[in-house]
Specification:
This protein is α/β, with parallel strands linked by helices. It has 10 helices and 9 strands. The protein has a domain at about 45-185 and about 220-260: Rossmann fold (3-Layer(aba) Sandwich). The protein binds S-adenosylmethionine.
C-alpha cells in the first residue's frame, strides 16, 4: 500500500501545507514539479543567461565563494544543487588529483550541461555527478570535507531540511559555503535593482531564452528569501559554528561560510 508520503508526492491527495513558488502558493509536490520544470526549461541557456543578466559577475561571485570555502588538496567536496558545475570545476581545481568533487542535483538536464563542461576540461577525473534531492541527500553522515551550494537553496521546498542534510553529510570541522542572491543596499540601488530584476530580467528572459515565466520566478524567489542575518540564525540553530557572511556587489549576492563544530 502506498504511504501518505508517496501519495502526497504523486499529488493524489492535497498536501496539508502550501509553500511558495515565487509569489504563488502551491502544494509541496507542485513546487518540486515546478522547480524541476523551471530548470529543465532553461538548462541549455542557463550559463549564457547568467552571464548576460549578471554582466559576467556570477563568475567572480563563484570564485570568491570557493576561495572562502577553504577547500584544499585531497578534500572530498559536495556541490549541492551543482547544476552546470561551475562551482564544482572551481573546487576540482583546488582538490588536486587526490581529492574528489561530487555534483549533486535533482535535474538531469542541468547536470547534462555540466557533464559536457567537465568532460571538456582537464579536471574530468576529479568530478562525479549524482542525481538526487538535496532535502534527502543520498550520502552517509560525515562524508565530506566541504559542502558548497550556489544559487540553490532558494528553490528548496523546506529550506531547513536541506540545510540540515548538508550539515549531516559534513565531517566534523568541515566547511559549508553558500552563495545566494539577497537584498542589496542602499535603498536607491535596491530600487534600481528591483526595476532591473522585475522588469528587465523577465523581458530579457522572454526575448533571449524564450521564457518570461522562468525569469519572473527568479526575482520573486529572491525577494522571499531570508536576509543574511536570518540565514545565519538558521545555520546556528541547525548546529553550524563560526558563521560569517560577505556581501557581494552591494549585497546582490551573499556568501555564507560556516563550519560543522
Ligand atoms: C540556479 S541553479 C544553480 C546551479 C549552480 N549551482 C550555479 O551556481 O550556477 C539551481 C540548481 O538547483 C537544483 N535544485 C533545485 N532544487 C533542488 C533539490 N531539492 N535538490 C537538488 N537540486 C536542486 C536545480 O535543478 C538547479 O540545477
Amino acid at each position: 500500500m502506498a504511504s501518505d508520503h508517496q501519495n502526497k508526492e504523486e499529488g493524489r491527495i492535497p498536501s496539508e501545507s502550501s509553500v511558495s513558488f515565487g509569489f504563488r502558493r502551491v502544494s509541496e509536490a507542485e513546487k518540486r514539479k515546478l522547480v524541476d520544470e523551471h530548470f529543465g526549461s532553461i538548462a541549455t541557456k542557463y550559463d549564457w543567461m547568467n552571464t548576460v543578466l549578471s554582466f559576467g559577475l556570477h563568475y567572480l561571485w563563484k570564485r570568491i565563494a570557493v576561495r572562502m570555502s577553504g577547500i584544499k588538496a585531497g578534500d572530498v567536496v559536495l556541490d549541492v544543487c551543482g547544476g552546470t558545475a561551475d562551482l564544482a570545476l572551481l573546487a576540482a581545481d583546488l582538490v588536486s588529483t587526490t581529492g574528489r568533487v561530487f555534483v549533486y542535483d535533482i535535474n538531469r538536464t542541468m547536470m547534462r550541461v555540466g557533464q559536457a563542461k567537465v568532460a571538456a576540461s582537464h579536471l574530468s577525473e576529479r568530478v562525479r555527478f549524482v542525481q538526487g534531492d538535496a532535502e534527502r541527500i543520498s550520502f552517509p553522515d560525515g562524508s565530506f570535507d566541504a559542502v558548497v551550494v550556489g544559487f540553490g537553496i532558494r528553490n528548496f521546498v523546506h529550506l531547513q531540511e536541506g540545510l540540515k542534510e548538508m550539515h549531516r553529510v559534513l565531517k566534523r570541522g568541515g566547511s559549508f559555503t553558500c552563495l545566494e542572491f539577497s537584498r542589496p543596499d542602499p535603498a536607491w540601488f535596491r530600487a534600481l535593482y528591483h526595476f532591473y530584476s522585475f522588469v528587465i530580467m523577465p523581458l530579457a528572459g522572454s526575448i533571449l531564452a524564450g521564457t518570461r515565466k522562468a525569469y519572473t520566478y527568479l526575482p520573486e524567489s529572491i525577494r522571499l528569501f531570508p536576509l543574511p542575518d536570518e540565514l545565519s540564525t538558521m545555520l546556528q540553530d541547525i548546529g553550524f559554528s563560526k558563521i560569517i557572511y560577505k556581501r557581494l556587489t552591494n549585497g546582490i549576492a551573499v556568501v555564507h561560510r560556516a563550519e560543522k563544530g
